[in-house]
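Researcher: Next entry in the queue.
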Amino acid sequence: MSTRKSYPQFRQSTPARRRPAGHDSSGGPSGPVAPAVRPSAESPRLVMLNKPFDVLCQFTSQDDRRTLKDYVDQPGLYPAGRLDRDSEGLLLLTNHGPWQARIADPRHKMPKTYWVQVENEAIERQLAQLRQGVDLVDGRTAPAEVDRLAEPLLWARHPPVRFRKSVPTSWLQITICEGRNRQVRRMTAAVGLPTLRLVRVAIGPWTLADLQPGSWRELDGF
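Model: Structure for this entry, 222 residues:
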């Protein structure tokens, strides 16, 4: 079985207020691909955001949907990687092209960890399939770190997850180093565990810790 990391539990069920720009603020289809960061004369910046559910991973508006601009009004920052509209959690933003590439380019194999609520009780055979790699339409996935997870104490999602009363659910912790479109959702579906809720809790050395939905925090970078 893979070694399991430990992540802090969330203790607040309501989002923290967004703080003014420049302050620590700790306390469906994908949109267009994030543009590459242009070279900047400014000092490199790295920001982490806890992206709420139903927010597009882009700064331009689309059909009056919420975007990153509603939460991070900081010019010159772009997402380093993506997080689907119907997924939540850790998103890194930067104004520094090399940092963006190092975080987002699958060739650098930066691990990304997700807490995933799925339909059905996961059995060992399904976990083994996920760990070994799953055959998808765009090829077989690389081996993943997968463990059962006790239900985490997370913030309430709005709107709430729609459950089927007759079908049990379970939680998994999944770590991958690839960056395919909706990869975790497709992996769990392929082994008979449709994803209900997906929260990214870590990218490389950075974790959400106590950062609340819609809040952001400046980081030191690499």
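Model: Residues 111-203 form a domain with the Alpha-Beta Plaits fold (CATH 3.30.70.1560).
Researcher: Noted, moving on.
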